[in-house]
Queue: 2 jobs
Job 1
Amino acid sequence: MPRLTEDAALLVIDVQNDFCSGGALAVPEGETVVPVVNRLIEAFQVVVLTQDWHPPGHASFASAHDTGDAFTMIEMPYGPQVLWPDHCVQGTSGAAFHPDLITDPARLIVRKGTNPEIDSYSAFFENDQITATGLAGALADLGVEHVVMAGLATDYCVCWSALDARRLGLNVTVVEDACRAIDLDGSLASAMASMLESGVRISDSETVLAS
């Protein structure tokens, strides 16, 4: 299969066991993206994978708070924060990539959410929108101008990554059939509207591979 040019990178967001069926924070049908993502990986010269990689007791975990159930919202110093079940704890099987995901072609693996006090949905910035992960600089060094995104979940980590990439001046395509959503209280519709408004292109894997 011909590989897409080096100015385009595939960014695979958080295809990890805890976000798939049976995981601590399972995205409905999350594992069904794996075959689609694998086909995309084979087509790109530049592939970047991300992992949620939380220390135990992370501030975004409901278990770290005396009050507040999972999936409720609290206010953190950096802004609103959903409290999540404990997930993707560093070194656990839940934090590992899905076993069927092709990982060898990756140029870079970005681990995010490592600061115990700040969550990090985006592959580019922590949720304070200030602290950078280093991904933007790495893509610039590789000459990447267009980021194609796939993974989990559409309405959180994919969306935040896409919006930040646009804010950084990158062209962005989200591959809809290579993503799945949590859809918490209408979050999917809101995320899609925000991405489209920011200039993110929504496409499908066959169109991307044909290009």
Job 2
Amino acid sequence: MTALFALATSLLWGLADFGGGLLTRRVPALTVVVVSQTIAVAVLGAVVVATGGWHEAGPGLWFAVAAGAVGPVAMLSFYKALALGPMGVVSPLGSLGVAVPVGVGLVLGERPGVLQFAGIAVAVLGILMAGGPEFRGAPVRRQAIVLTLLAAFGFGAVMALISQASTTVTGLFLALFVQRVTNVAVGGTALYVSVKRGAAALPQGGAGVVRAALPALAFVGLADVAANGTYAIAAQQGPVTVAAVLASLYPVVTALAARGVLKERLRGVQAAGAGIALLGTLLLATG
């Protein structure tokens, strides 16, 4: 079940990243983050009320608060790094965040078998290659590298924190709700400061463009929430070292979505990376 939920996480994260990437071509990235997470808060609030999740409140919610505070910082750092580029370097480096939950699992005493260790190494290599690394071209700006590594650490920290936020399904709904409320608080504050400094909060075309994009924004927000939920379940039911690597296959999903929807051609290194990542998945599942 760990593999199943972790792979579901990679599918959801991959589609959410693809949708978010498309939206940021029309809507400012910070607005995408705040609006999509606000929709997620509304839906999760209704779920928490319906399931009685309020009764699951406990000290573990502080992990959700921490995840909610780190998430927007990581996401905005990643968007900024992508803007500085080149994307072919930034994208695969962002996947290095998998080292955080894997490291936490090893510190906590998890010891994967030989096949699983091999699967982790093979899958991580495939994930990096699937991002389409650029081996030639203009040098990468130091700021882009720093921002990407900050984002990667943040993504990995969110994975590690959310897995500790609750041990029950109803408690998980509450934890995800608290995480998203914190996301909106942090992102909303950043948006307010940005507007005060004169930065545009709305795209060309005004609020009408945002309203037209609400279904897509809702999908991005809810897919991201669902991915956090399936990852938490995967990490609770099996080794975090395995769950984290399988959940981090999302760059493969994003690349395949771009190929299918936008007709973007996969570079040779990306196609090879997807195949290697799948091989690593098989090793992890059978190990």
